[in-house]
Protein 1
Amino acid sequence: MTSLDAAFSALADPTRRAILARLALGEATVMELVEPFELTQPAISRHLKVLEGAGLIVRRVEGTKRPCRLAPSAVTEIDQWLSVLRRALEANYGRLDQVLANMNPKKK
Amino acid sequence: MSKLTLKTEGDRHVVVTRRFAAPPEAVYRAHTEPELIQKWMLGPEGWTMPVCVNEARPGGKIRYEWTNGAGGGFYVTGEYVELVPFSRLVHVERMHMPDATPDNHVETTFAPDGTGTLMTMRMTLPDAATRAAMLSTNMEHGMEASYVRLETTLTSSPAING
């Protein structure tokens, strides 16, 4: 539950969502992320620290570089997110059933 | 028994299906006429849609604004790409919270199914991470609504305890 909370606050920031979108395409180093986002290297590093703390990305050491990529657990969170979307949709479509029943009472 | 199916497909899609006990024309109209949309497309309990723009023609604008009546709210904007009365709708949409999320490309089809309708809604996001972000955004919204409902329950039933 705490990791889920951390994931939410990490994902609440549009730059961090964009970084995740970039990492979905493949591994990247800090320097490779600096250019497209037009942010300073320390700013990118701060975002990466939050994403790493939330378990959404993992980093490995390669010489002086620490490339990051999406964490496998970031993908499994999707199942929980789907269940929330399902509840919202079920509420919507339950109401739509009522709307449809009221639209066409004579044809039954 | 739930008639809803919801699944991810590949890296970028979310597919929803649902059967309705009404013909495709009625279900299509309930998706394109603002006064009908405002009655059901509300998400979690406690939310309303005070603003509903739905210009059902190619290039037509979509704007849905939701509020929880307690200061919480967000909106969706979009444009229609293609409409085939009463069988198919294609539109793009994005949520504003307040930053706009990347475009969600949505195809909704309404197929006759006995005396009713089988609706299939296929969402296409730009990539896997954007899909993840879209689903998580939805979850934040869902959780927020749950908290509001919990608060309402707690404040409106002082004598329930024990």
Protein 2
Amino acid sequence: MSALTLQDVHKSFGKVEVLKGIDLAVVEHEVVCMIGASGSGKSTLLRCVNLLEPVDRGRIVVGDQELTARGVDVNVVRRRIGIVFQAYNLFPHMRVLDNITLAPRKALKLPRAEAEARALELLERFGLSDKRDDYPDRLSGGQQQRVAIVRALAMRPDLMLLDEVTSALDPELVAEVLGVIRELASEGMTMLIATHEMSFARDIADRVVFLDEGVIREEGTPEEIFSAPKEPRTQQFLQRIIEAGRL
Amino acid sequence: MQAGSRSSKILDLGGEGSRSVAVAVASTLVFFGLVVLLVVNSAGWPEVKQAFFDPDVFRASFPDIADAFLLNVRIFLIAEVFILVAALGIAVLRSVPGPVFFPVRALAVAYTDLFRGIPTILVVYILGFGAPALQIQGVPRDPLFWGIFSLVLVYSAYVAEVYRSGIESVHPSQEAAARSLGLTRPQSLRYVIVPQAVRRVVPPLLNDFIGLQKDSALVALIGPVEAFRQSQIEVAGSFNYTPYVATAMLFVLLTIPLARFTDWLIARDRRRQR
């Protein structure tokens, strides 16, 4: 069953058309990695799926619900979609535990005890139990990003969107965050991931999508995309990545 | 950490160690010594001393003025509570998005423009004399009420702007994070945006409150006998200006703890988040 379907999605900022008709389907338990140069539309696409940006045209369907239909309660829909940002975006005025329990308590109306039990279980699982009472500024970038992932997971989403979650991290901290994502994938979490980490994408993705100038230029298995890309644009992009020593 | 320890000091000596303390003390003594010498040796000092710094008049007038000053304290404490709430409401209304709410935003802008524009003293006069004169059933006629009401109107306009600058200083990614978790816009404001905004604006906000404390004297103009009015009465009785100085002293004494409290709050917040 399809977890996420995009049909002919268009999005412009002013005169610049960032998404020029995207068609994409992600099935349940599938991990799809989006690769492509900066400005190719990866982040915008993820923000559109979460309705942080309204789309100009096209349909977005999550599970059996069309987000782009009229009269949809975006707050209800968003609870089913977790998003993790490049810059973590933790709430700096709240302790780690409160960061995680805020939305379950206020949006899902869970009692505090239940929300905290849920949060502590997740913190435990990702080795962050001792950070529960710290403010985010005290944590390393890798720890902050793991907390951000836990915060999204605490809503028990059907679908996770990851927007270049390792791009702001020091190289030695990337592995711990990728480890968390791997674990999610192995548990069958449906994920749409925008990433610059090619070897990670190759390793974790069921399917890789190459985004170029607002369209999906090519898609296929990691093997097809990374070893035998068909489109000249994909070949060029991967060539540059290899020259930069990142594949 | 460095920034935190620095700002937690009330006064920065500009250096470390006993030597800089000694230099600071010496230069302070020299500076104020010179100022005192200049004043005390001026031609008019004997008369000024007599008229403004008469210890006997001070002792005689101080208890009544201090008593009346409690009314000032009441005035601004009551006003502050209402201002904190009203101003936040106005600031939030001003940031409501969407074309439907244009009238709301326009109204909030008009309000802040109007009440920052009119001199406080005129608001006090107009409302203090005008509103009770309408003789509408249920509208209070107590000048104290209208005095406080005027201060709330004027200072809410200022404080709303302070809040707004705080709200706008919170990065949009914070709201994106809150909304993406399924929180509604009011929930995002209440739990994520406003708490961060308020922390950032505590210093300018308390600065406005120091201004308000002083302006509580304006309520005297429509009747209530607070410290300033009381000192006028004392001056009229003694033909000596010392009661004004006593009143000024009381206002300053009240400002200092508030200013230090502000410093302490900021320092505490820095420590907590690091």
